[in-house]
Amino acid sequence: MLEFLRAGGPMLWLIVFFGVIGIYVFLEKFFQLRRNQVNVRELVTGLVNVLKRDAMIEAITLCDTTPGPVAKLLNAAIQAYQNDDDIKPAIEDTAKTELNRLESRLNILSTIANIAPLLGLLGTVVGMYDTFSGISASNGMSLAALSGGVKEALITTAAGLCVAIPAHLAYNYLLTQVQSLCADMEKASSEILYFFAHRKQELNK
Predict the structure, then answer these.
(1) What is the per-residue pLDDT for 148?
(2) Which of 17, 49, 70, 120 is 20 to 30 A from 168, comparing alpha carbons?
(3) What is the distance between the alpha carbons of residues 144 and 138, in angstroms, rounded to a whole number?
């Protein structure tokens, strides 16, 4: 492995560095999103049953003990209703905050996926330049030495692709998970708004 890294030169070390960062970001976001996934239908149904009994404290406690952005969004809606505030802006503000938290650091994976092949190509160009500079300086070079130099130059291109492809797949996978959570938030917000709207109508009769 050390010989491989030495053959690729400093550009290969930079690609490996970005690869390690990509692995760290992916694992961090993967476990974060896994913790945030809940059964939305079950949560909303249980919460509505509690709210029908006007057990506001129990409903807030249920939201506080449930992980994920959906529970936080429902909690904001309940507290806004309890304080006679406008529920929709409270939901929208919480949704924006949670969306920013879910999408944080995803841009790092996207950047790595885009820049790693370019770094690999740059490393190849630098390696080829050094190879042909050696040919000029020595007034000729054997075919074996030339092929060895080209092989070393191409290492960075291969390394860049080996980092970029998994980073791109990881980014798309995590983005899909974020979009799924956003759909859950939209569904939960529409259901809680519907419930509170009909609840107010019932109390005003």
Answers:
(1) 58
(2) 70
(3) 15
Structure tokens at 74: 């429902």
Tens of pLDDT, residue by residue over 160-191, are 999 999 999 999 999 999 999 999 999 999 99
Q: Are 70 and 188 in contact (CB under 8 A)?
A: yes
Question: What is the per-residue pLDDT for 84?
Answer: 82
Contact by Cβ (8 Å): 113, 168: yes
Tokens standing for residue 179? 């979009």
On average, the pLDDT of the chain sits at 86
Q: What are phi and psi of 140, to 5 degrees?
A: 125, 155
Q: What is the DSSP string of 80-91?
A: HHHTT--HHHHH
Cβ-proximal residues to 72 (8 Å cutoff; 6+ apart), any chain = 63, 94, 98
Q: Closest Cα to residue 130, out of 108, 151, 107?
A: 151
Among 22, 12, 72, residue whose Cα is nearest residue 47: 72
Average pLDDT on 34-43 reads 90
User: Residue 69: which of 36, 96, 30 has the closest Cα?
Assistant: 36
Position 56, amino acid: M
In angstroms, rounded to a whole number, what is the distance separating the alpha carbons of residues 182 and 96? 10
Report the C-alpha gap between 167 and 164 in whole angstroms: 5
Q: Is 161 in contact with 114 (CB distance < 8 Å)?
A: no
